[in-house]
Amino acid sequence: MTIVRPFMQKLEQLGPFGDQERRLLESLSFNGTITFDAGQDLAREGERPSDCKLIVEGYACRYKALKYGERQIVSFHLPGDIIDLNSLLLGRIDHSIGALTLVKCIAIPHATLRDWIERHPRLTQMLWRDTLVDAAVFREWVVNVGRRSAYQRIAHLVCELVTRLRAAGLVQAGACDLPPITESDIADATGLSVVHVNRALQQLRGDRLLDLRAGVLVALDWERMRQAAGYDPAYLHPLAEAA
Amino acid sequence: MTIVRPFMQKLEQLGPFGDQERRLLESLSFNGTITFDAGQDLAREGERPSDCKLIVEGYACRYKALKYGERQIVSFHLPGDIIDLNSLLLGRIDHSIGALTLVKCIAIPHATLRDWIERHPRLTQMLWRDTLVDAAVFREWVVNVGRRSAYQRIAHLVCELVTRLRAAGLVQAGACDLPPITESDIADATGLSVVHVNRALQQLRGDRLLDLRAGVLVALDWERMRQAAGYDPAYLHPLAEAA
DNA sequence: CGTCTAGTTGAGGGTCGTCAATAGAGGTGG
DNA sequence: CCACCTCTATTGACGACCCTCAACTAGACG
After folding, report:
1. How, if at all, do strands B41-43 and B51-57 pair?
2. Among A58, A135, B27, B114, which has the highest number of CB atoms less than 10 A from its own CB?
3. How many CA atoms are closer than 13 Å to the CA of A151, on its beta-carbon side?
């Protein structure tokens, strides 16, 4: 039971998995971890990282900043997620990666990954599949900000997070609590203003669908929230079944 | 100069390319093409296609339909684009693919692709890279519908299309005309209503940035349109340089 | 005890959606 | 050749959703 446990669990959901690959990933435990404070950037738009980062603890997000300070979060990431696979194949990254909480991660050098990819086609396919699931999430987010009301957008976002946390084995007990994200984060993820997020959240609270207090989101009524959001986890593919 | 020319041109932009791969792709010319009328679906959400489709002629889009008939287009595709690579690795597709014009495409059986992937790691990497560029476009679309005004959204969409058409060698002469898409398509791609798209387009016309008549978009003033949209093609990665 | 961040509230206004009606282009059939 | 139909574009009126600005509260932390 090493610190790469969440990562292995995720990859196991993405495809058949041999002892060879298992040993490869285990070896990562010896890399040592890097720590980022909440608010710090793990990487910045335009950079050319020489490694990919695997989250071991904490929550991060990918975002793009526009001039005048607006920003749009395009995805959230949990322990076990490997972000930045883009940089391996595309070089320059087109978005920044920010830490939402304290984040511990392992940096996997591109050289190592390139080596793995050459020698382990099965692993390659799993990583490729992972980026495809990522892309599927982006698509759903386009739908979310494009065609849903504020109320629905937030509900949908919460639904997705709950499903992914479940798939990652990060939900304990009945009341599944979500990562501590601020209303400002939700606003940036849904394309809304902070003020309006606040009001929509009050409605969701009033309707007893969810509750956000002291930075912790609690899903109260899963089925009604799913309905309200028009949420269908099929787009998460393997992660949907694992949840 | 075969019908797979646009596809090869695109892959050449995505990575080093040997004679071996070239011959592989040439062999596709013998597969015969399938034709779809404008408005028809090449594939539907939830299906499990047994092949991937390579567009040879015409324009298509990926979209998701919500209940009550709203829909959100999540990407446009041109000749040379291989859509549906998702289905190869994820099975079920989470979105539909519609033909915007008459579309001719080659169906590449999954079996063939699987064979290629096993034997040609370089080709694998190019296809993977292609899906990563796809994902980068989705990210930018999230930003577009999430944080830009109607006016900017449309300008940005047009900028992206022009860049990609250039990269695909599909822009002739000075006045580069775009594929015949309706205002309704633009509405579905930008998360706006048809009526509002119409008014925003009138403004863009009034400002002499672009013109849409008889279903053909014409970019009038590239630099000012870029400025207005806040457009930076960096997210298109290899395609940006090729344009 | 002051300062900082996150959350909350009210007022007012702008962007954008809905509904409904009209105009024009293209296609089809009598 | 013209009547008719359909699809796309267009316009006006009206209202809703959401944004901005601004002020205020509450908790965290030194």
Report:
1. unpaired
2. A135
3. 14
| B67, B92, B94 member nearest A139 (Cβ) | B94
Tell me which DSSP letter residue B177 carries: B
Q: Do A153 and A144 meet the contact criterion of CB atoms below 8 Å apart?
A: yes
CB contact under 8 A, A67 and B230: yes
List of residues 6+ apart from B225 with CB closer than 8 A: B155, B158, B159, B209, B210, B219, B231
Looking at beta carbons, which residues of chain A come within 8 Å of B147? Answer: 66, 70-72, 191
Cβ B173 to strand C below 7 Å: no
Partners of B193 in beta bridges: none
- B125 near A CB under 8 A: yes
In 3D space, the residue among B137, B10, B146 whose CA is nearest the CA of residue A94 turns out to be B137
pLDDT tens-digit readout, A79-125: 999 998 999 999 999 999 999 999 999 999 999 999 999 999 999 99
Distance B203 CA to D12 C1' (A): 17
AA identity, residue A158 = V
Q: Express each pLDDT in B141-192 by its tens digit.
A: 999 999 999 999 999 999 999 999 888 888 765 556 678 899 999 999 999 9
Residue A68 CB-density burial (10 A; 0-12 exposed, 13-18 middle, 19+ buried): exposed
For the whole model, what pTM was predicted? 0.95
Which pLDDT value is given to residue B176? 64
Residue with token string 């040993």 = A23
What is the chain A residue with the closest CA to B238?
A: A90
pLDDT band at B239 (very low <50, low <70, confident <90, very high): confident
Convert the pLDDT of each residue in A207-221 to its tens digit.
999 987 766 777 778
The end-to-end CA distance of chain B, in Å, is 21
| Contact at CB, A64 and B89, closer than 8 angstroms | no
Structure tokens at A231: 């949420």
User: Is-contact A178 A217, C-beta < 8 A?
Assistant: yes
Please tell me what DSSP assigns to residue A177. B
